[in-house]
């Protein structure tokens, strides 16, 4: 006769019980306004022509490929374009 081990066994504890607690860290201090570049956090929904949207997408892909800069995005190009437009008009 062969002695078999049961297919289902009881565990003595939860697997996560062996993971140590996280070390206590200080929360990051808020940086002063104007320290470093301003982040793109505001949303501005507008309607544009489909052809312009296609050109914008292709421009992002082209610029990312040519420069290797992964921070280039539709949002960053739009932000720069609006900023340049307003500066040219003294706003």
UniProtKB/TrEMBL annotation:
Segments for region (Disordered): 1-53
Segments of skewed composition (Basic and acidic residues): 39-53
Name this protein carries in UniProt: Uncharacterized protein
Organism annotation: Mycobacterium kiyosense
